[in-house]
């Protein structure tokens, strides 16, 4: 994908507003009025005169592409007019922070019809509301400032807009895919930089610093999530956050990290040997996970049921663990008994977009079936959606030991063979995949071939 060329255009805010309006009208026939949204507002740290780190509100960004704080947007559903309201110049603030974006600059930067200043919000809403009969203002609860009024509108709907945007966000257009691809490209360079430095590092935090430096240097200082730099047995902790352990004596590093590009996320995981050479046990587990990922990606296309792809991953894991002798017995019995969940306890992936765990997945965490309980996506996949495919096999005592104590599961696990694999920790491989009509496109360019990773680390 030539993402740099695509990103020379504008974020398609008006197309998103139209898509959201279509969804609302499918639920509320003949809906008329406005969509109203606010950005995140500037807020000071508690007991401090510095502002909190700013993260743009995703619902607002979806209808504007605007990264500014303290802003508002109004979309007239009938005229299709999109109006952005940005903060006016505060002379005292200019002394400290410089001139803000002007209305003229904002109009040139973003896909909106008009730009006004925020002191015009109430007057504009009152004018639109008074002109329309049987009009409705659609907004999101707890995301409207007290000073904003909707008095001139006949109806106020605080129930459908959030849902409409969440559903609309699932299918990405070309510009959104280009932003995810750009984030992936930068994150790939950062992953490779860690591979090149891992053999010489002493502590996980040094590798986190390498990753962040590469992202910042490429213009992507914001991370999509708190990165995981888990060495040795810590790789069996799915969302390990400490990133401060020494590397000495550890076999592998599980690196799960990705930057944002203009509010759009990447989410990439690689697992590789710290000293440049997989042990026999580590390579065996890596090869199973690698096959899980490649076969699952090959099965993806528009309309597939995500549950079935997740099930495929478990079947491959069971075959591999049986071959190694970690599991024993009949593979159909092992699957029916859900014993493989001890080694692959999480879902295969999730939607990706402005949030790492993006909207629209319809998870069911109350599912009594442990194989599917933690799936963040349920149902069929539409073309244009982006999913992560991130199978893993983990050796976590806290998870596995209860299975060993349960006769229903213990009969399928060879504890003596298992003993050789605890130091592997965990292996996960994760790519970001666009679903297409006939297959998929992989946006992740990070190296995952085990021989190539060994070559990079070994030659560094």
Q: In one word, what is the shape?
A: globular
Structural class: alpha+beta
Strand proportion, as a percent range, falls in: 5-15%
Which percent range fits the helix content?
25-40%
Count of β-strands: 16
Which stretches of 5+ consecutive residues score pLDDT under 50?
A: none
Structural Rg:
25 Å
End-to-end separation in angstroms reads 30 Å
Number of helices: 16
What kind of sheet is the major sheet? 6 strands, mixed
What is the topology, as strand order, of the major beta sheet? 4-3-2-1-5-6
Cofactor: Mn(2+)
Protein name: Xaa-Pro aminopeptidase
Catalytic activity: Release of any N-terminal amino acid, including proline, that is linked to proline, even from a dipeptide or tripeptide
Enzyme class: hydrolase
What does this structure look like?
- The strands form five sheets. The protein has a six-stranded mixed sheet, with helices on both faces. Strands 7-8-11 form a three-stranded antiparallel sheet.
- Strand 15 and strand 16 form a beta hairpin.
- Helix 2 packs across helix 7 and helix 10 runs antiparallel to helix 11 (306-324).
- The protein is globular and about 75 Å long.
- The protein is built from 16 helices and 16 strands.
- The mean pLDDT is 97.
- It is of the alpha+beta class and 460 residues long.
- InterPro entries: Aminopep_P_N, Creatin/AminoP/Spt16_N, Creatinase/aminopeptidase-like, Pept_M24, X-Pro_dipept-like.
- Keywords: Aminopeptidase, Hydrolase, Manganese, Metal-binding, Metalloprotease, Protease.
- GO terms for molecular function: manganese ion binding; metalloaminopeptidase activity.
- It catalyses: Release of any N-terminal amino acid, including proline, that is linked to proline, even from a dipeptide or tripeptide.
